[in-house]
Structure formats: structure tokens, C-alpha cells
Amino acid sequence: MLRWCRWTLISVQFLTRFPFHIKGEVSEQDLGRSTAFFPVAGLVVGLFLLVVYRAALLLWPQQVAAVVALAGLVVVTGGLHLDGLMDTADGMMSGKSREKMLDIMKDSRVGAMGVIACFLILALKLMGLSFLAPQNAYRVMIIFTVTGRCSMTWALAGFRYARTGSGTGRPFAENVTAREGVVATVIALALVTAVGGFAGLVLAATGVVCGLAIACYISRKLGGLTGDTYGAVNEITETAVILAALAMEGQGWLSWVL
């Protein structure tokens, strides 16, 4: 039990900017095991967003509250996943060889494709949260943050690491097995079902399918995944969940199944 708590804290520390202190040395095995609890870190992020969103609604219209919530998402994650998305877009859209794409993704500078990808993702998230009824948006914030991080666990467990040298994602990728994916899935299913019932399961399934489809595409191009692409998988998954929720609400399905 103590080890599980430790791995949970490691996952929250890595994926957020909350100042948790982990006693003792964090080994690469600890990093790998912590991926099983990525959905718990997603729950922490989702609850933070929910508080920010509800507080913002007391002062401003829903559209402004959605902007504030997204700003909170960037702050609480340190823009970690958006940075990965931008680097991935720069590399994948360059039209270069595999080696050149990996070099471009490692470059700290952001190119035009990265900026465009970041803008589109944030715009889609903003529109989705702006048009969702607040009572549905509350639930969706938990569902998309939990599901996005579950997708990352499976991206780590299901695909080889593309780089030959060191990288942020290597200590995680080399110490993750299907066991962590299964545990993460069980946790995520429990959380999204508790929050959204059957609709939560549908939204989570939609997000994971879209995120892992992107992971498959990237893996074919690069021969595996990298730390940047894990962030891109999270962003795609989150956006897919939000847009799926908006589509379900528009069809009148969301209000009665949540």
C-alpha cells in the first residue's frame, strides 16, 4: 500500500506542478510503476480545473470561464503536454526523414507547425467547453483529464521508444509493461464511470481510440514514440473527449445518460 501511495505521488509530481516532496531516491523502476497511477494524477488535474471553472463562473460568462479553466490547465501541468504536441507537430509535418524528424522534435525552438497545432488544440478545447452546459462540463473536465493520462500509460506500454540516446520518456518507457496499462485502465474506468456513468465510458473509449490511433501513426513514421509524442497523445485524447461530449450533448444524448 505504501508503495502504491509513493508511485501515485511520483505520477502527480511528474505530471503536475504541485509541490509534492518524495522521500528517498526515485529509481527508474519507480518511474515505470508510477505510470499505472497516471489516471489519478489526471483526477487531481481535473478537480483543480473544476474548482477554477466554478469559481470563474461566479464572476464571468461561461465563455470567459472556459478560457480561465484552460489557462489553469496550462499552469497546473506546466504546459508539459502542449510542448510535446508542438514539438511532435514540427517534426511530423516537416516531411523529412525519420532521423531528421527526431532531431527537429528535440530542438527546443518551436516552428510554425507547432504553433498552428497548439492553436488548433486550444481552440477546439475552448469551443467545446464554451458550448457545453456547465453541469456537463463539470463531469467532462474529470473525464478528459483522467482519460488523457490513461492513454499516455498505454502509449508507454504498447510502443517501443524511438530514440537511441537519452530522453525524458526513456526511463518511463523502458520500465512500463502491460501490467501498468491494465492497472491504469481499471483506475480510469472506475473514475469515469463514477463521474459519468455509461456516457463516461463512451467518452473515455472515444478518447483512447483517437489517442492510440495517433500513437500508431506516429510510431509507423518514427519507429516508436518519444517523450514529446506522449504529450501529443494526451492532447489528442483530451480534445477527442471534449468534442465527443459536445456532439453527444448536441444530439440530446448527454443530458440523460450522465
State the helical fraction. over 70%
Largest sheet entry:
none
Number of domains: 1
Uncertain segments: none
Query: What value does the average pLDDT take?
Result: 93
Strand content: under 5%
Question: Total strand count, please?
Answer: 0
Distance between the termini: 32 Å
Secondary-structure-based class equals mainly alpha
Descriptors for this entry?
single chain, 258 residues, globular, mainly alpha, 12 helices
Would you write up a description of this structure?
This protein has helices spanning 2-15, 28-34, 38-57, 62-77, 80-92, 98-106, 112-131, 134-158, 170-173, 178-222, 227-250, 254-257. The protein starts with a helix and ends with a helix. The protein has one domain. Helix 5 packs antiparallel against helix 6 (98-106). It has 258 residues and is mainly alpha-helical.
Give a short summary of the structure.
This protein is an all-alpha fold and about 260 residues long. The protein has helices at about 1-15, 30-35, 40-55, 60-75, 80-90, 100-105, 110-130, 135-160, 170-175, 180-220, 225-250, 255.
List the helices and strands and how they pair.
Blueprint: H1 2-15, H2 28-34, H3 38-57, H4 62-77, H5 80-92, H6 98-106, H7 112-131, H8 134-158, H9 170-173, H10 178-222, H11 227-250, H12 254-257
